[in-house]
Write a structure and sequence with these properties.
This protein is of the alpha+beta class and 153 residues long. It contains four helices and eight strands; from the N terminus they run E-H-E-E-E-E-H-E-E-H-H-E.
Amino acid sequence: MTQGPAPRPLSDEALSGLLGTHQFGTLATVKRDGRPHLTTMVYSWDPEARLLRFSTTADRVKVKHLRHNPRATLHVQGGDVWSFAVAEGEAEVSEATAVPGDAVGRELLGLIPKEAKPEDEDAFLEQLVAERRVVVRLRVDRLYGTALDISGQ
């Protein structure tokens, strides 16, 4: 039996690059019974700080999970089924933005790419308060993942 190429581990730099080129991933939190809770999330990656940030609302189940157990993992798919990055760490959840333009609201605004910034910033900040938005900050202490190099395809 002929064995094809095997996936190769990615370097920290390559993993960080993969996280930086995507905006969607699957966030895993831990339920009270120990099983994982998975949800697709939009995220922002700060490679220097090794920090992932997510916007969500205070009433989401993932927020309850993280307040009970801060361990979390983000899985990001690469360009093929064999390429991926995983970021593990402990998360903290901010308080809900309470006043338009407060520190949490400004941090949430900062998560939006420049090309997608709202035209009416004041209305956007008011909407964040009405939705009870929070920032989840995942401090990454472990990165791992693989890629598969297939020549001739």
